[in-house]
Write a structure and sequence with these properties.
Two copies of one chain form a homodimer. Chain A is of the alpha/beta class and 260 residues long. Chain A has two domains: 2-151, 3-Layer(aba) Sandwich (Rossmann fold), CATH 3.40.50.720; 157-249, N-(1-d-carboxylethyl)-l-norvaline Dehydrogenase, domain 2. Chain A is built from nine helices and eight strands. Chain A has helices at 11-22, 67-76, 134-143, 153-183, 192-201, 207-210, 214-217, 220-229, 233-249; strands at residues 2-7, 26-32, 48-49, 60-63, 83-86, 101-107, 124-128, 148-150. Chain A has an eight-stranded mixed β-sheet, with helices on both faces. In chain A, helix 1 links the parallel strand 1 and strand 2. The longest helix of chain A is centred in the middle third of the chain and has 31 residues, at 153-183. The first copy, chain A, is elongated, with a radius of gyration of 23 Å. The relative contact order of chain A is 0.09. Chains A, B: Residues 4-85 form the Pyrroline-5-carboxylate reductase catalytic N-terminal domain. Chains A, B: InterPro entries: 6-PGluconate_DH-like_C_sf, DUF2520, NAD(P)-bd_dom_sf, P5C_Rdtase_cat_N, TM1727-like_C_sf. Chains A, B: It comes from Winogradskyella damuponensis. Chains A, B: This is DUF2520 domain-containing protein.
């Protein structure tokens, strides 16, 4: 049994809590948050606290707070020589106070308050300062059914950058698709199967091989026609930049496309 | 039974052929292509031809050739008063020669030669010149298990534009994610669950609600750190433009982010 104290009440903390709850080999002995109210609804199921001085003993302390608060919170912990990890994609492991054994437990997934997650599908990137603590973090990942990946800080930060492209930026393209549909009273829902297939396809082939469409075909007529159709300057700039990027990737001559 | 003649040998034609083959209410009476070789491997299963003069009679002629060739091919057809449709997202219906009954049968999906498609998930956008032909096209869509959507030319072209954003451009973001991973020897596969979840999430909530990440949080520190991490100028430009777009969508002050 791995005992855990959770610190923080955001999306990651909440999803971790739910995943731990389902696991038979993890026990959440306590949940800390600066403001009690955010986690008080869980008070029947787990010991909650807003005081660091009241923190119980556990095998792992998981700091799942905003990036800016991680370092300070790790220094404020009133104990030493225990295992303390953060869950951030971009904060360095060394930002954690070294009075404790430090590490990173980064679930590579997008967490929203309301969307349920199949946690066993989430890759967990783990990192430790002292090698002997690696097994504990790997076991914690496996205890919630996840595949642990041992990576370096640099790899994690690179992965987080790549994640911003494939997740946040992709979602913004969905948003733009939604906006464009709305201008002509088209239900965005019609695009759902296409969006799903686009995401599925790259599990069978590389994104390079999966590319299709006017930019990939260097179909200047269609590109010109589509640029004319675009109503927002912001969308036009994104269209031009990403079409040029596709052409570059596929070695197509990329003379600038102008809107008439 | 709806009888069909297919014209063209690209990805759309091939996927349509396979979908029709599975249907009990559609019969492909002939498959035409300019060059016989591209479809000769199907010669045992269907009558193939490279001569327009040999075209057989059918309820619907489906022109699934490149956008630039649609108009000419429709004029070259040696008959009149039959139902002729194209499958393009962006070509106007009126580009088809009006000696025949014209329409559009646009499957809104991304088709690659090698990726298998669950055709019943594909929305089919239909359009007709004369109202009385609408039922036939809708029936054809239903015959392959698809949902038909009656839309106008303007709506179809808008939908095609939105599709370029959510499919081609999204796929290019996957490609960039892949490139970024490779620079640090990270397997792109680790991002697959995140990519799939990002696509799934917007079936439960709007892309607006689904947004997360540093730009959405207006987390300037992380954005700055990530811009430093980016090695390619092209990726930097895309990062800046899409981060700014997210901030604009979510009404965050958007002072330009500079790379140090």
């Amino acid at each position: 049994m791995i005992s855990v104290v959770l610190l923080g009440a955001g999306n990651v903390a909440t999803h971790l809590y739910k995943a731990f709850l389902k696991s038979e080999t993890v026990s959440v002995v306590q949940w800390y948050n600066r403001t009690r109210a955010s986690i008080s609804s869980y008070a029947n199921d787990v010991d909650i606290t807003d005081s660091l001085d009241e923190l119980k003993e556990a095998d792992i302390y998981i700091i799942a707070v905003s990036d800016d608060s991680i370092s300070q919170l790790s220094s404020d912990l009133p104990f030493s020589n225990r295992m303390v990890v953060h869950t951030s994609g971009s904060v360095a492991m060394h930002d954690l106070d070294k009075k404790n054994k430090i590490g990173v437990f980064y679930p590579l997934q997008t967490f929203s308050k309301t969307a349920e997650i199949e946690f066993s599908e989430v890759p967990i990137c783990v990192e430790v300062y002292e090698k002997e603590n690696l097994t504990l973090l790997k076991d914690l990942a496996k205890a919630v059914g996840c595949k642990p990946h041992k990576i370096t800080t640099e790899q994690r930060q690179t992965l987080h950058l790549a994640a911003v492209f494939v997740n946040n930026f992709t979602n913004q393209l969905y948003r733009i698709g939604h906006e464009i549909c709305e201008t002509k009273n088209i239900e965005f829902k019609i695009l759902h199967p296409l969006i799903e297939e686009t995401a599925k396809k790259i599990q069978q082939m590389s994104p390079y091989m999966a590319q299709t469409g006017p930019a990939k075909r260097n179909d200047k007529k269609t590109i010109k026609r589509q640029l004319k159709l675009i109503e927002k300057e912001e969308h036009e700039a994104i269209y031009k930049l990403l079409a040029a990027s596709i052409k570059k990737t596929h070695n197509l001559t990329s003379r600038p496309v102008t809107k008439k």
